[in-house]
Specification:
Blueprint lengths: L14 H10 L4 E4 L4 E6 L5 H10 L10 E3 L4 E6 L2 E6 L4 H13 L4 E4 L4 E7 L3 H6 L16 E6 L2 E9 L2 E7 L3 H11 L8
């Protein structure tokens, strides 16, 4: 009889270190987020397919570059002129892909399940923006990168999809194979804020 395989979060072996960091650095909380269903969506933003997707998700596709918006249980993230990342915390990944694919197929669009491609790390608190600025070349001041902004950028030496959820609240989507590197970078960079006796 074959062994049963259980899915393990790519940052499972760093949870304790991230929790310990959150406990010892005041103004900073860092943790790996639960996996979500994610679909890469392609459709003409000016065509009827975009309206159909908006009706299906309950919100219009964000068409302004580097922005994102909420859906009922996830996010719609602008990736390019005709490309979005759509996430759902409650959907089954394959069913989510099938539903969105059905909506856009009549409009020469596509929907591809990319749930296993990325995982996410959450940083929030008064030091979150300052910590990110140690390894990110973007201007992260609230006036330049407010809530609702997103960017595909580097943090440390890995590419992330960075979302500003609030003034001091960020979600970093990272490819699963680079998740450990990103967590280690955060742990190392946060030493700047550690209070030494």
């Amino acid at each position: 009889m074959a062994d049963i395989l259980y899915r393990t979060h790519p940052l499972e072996n760093r949870r304790a270190a991230l929790a310990e960091l959150s406990g010892r650095v005041e103004g900073l909380t860092v943790y790996p987020e639960d996996p979500v269903a994610a679909v890469d969506l392609r459709v003409d933003p000016a065509g009827p397919g975009a309206d159909a997707v908006g009706r299906a998700l309950g919100t219009a596709l964000p068409v302004e570059p580097n922005t994102w918006t909420h859906t009922v249980d996830g996010q719609l993230v602008w990736l390019g002129p005709d490309e979005w990342l759509v996430t759902s915390a409650g959907a089954d990944p394959q069913e989510f892909e099938r539903e969105l694919g059905w909506v856009v197929s009549a409009y020469d669009g596509s929907a591809v399940d990319v749930s296993a491609q990325r995982t996410s790390l959450r940083l929030h608190g008064g030091l979150a923006r300052e910590l990110l600025s140690l390894g990110c070349a973007l201007d992260l001041r609230p006036s330049a990168f407010p809530a609702g902004a997103c960017a595909q950028t580097y943090v440390g030496q890995t590419v992330v999809l960075l979302l500003a959820l609030g003034p001091d609240d960020f979600r970093l989507f990272v490819r699963q194979s680079f998740a450990g590197y990103l967590a280690d970078w955060v742990l190392d960079a946060a030493e700047e804020f550690r209070a030494f006796p």
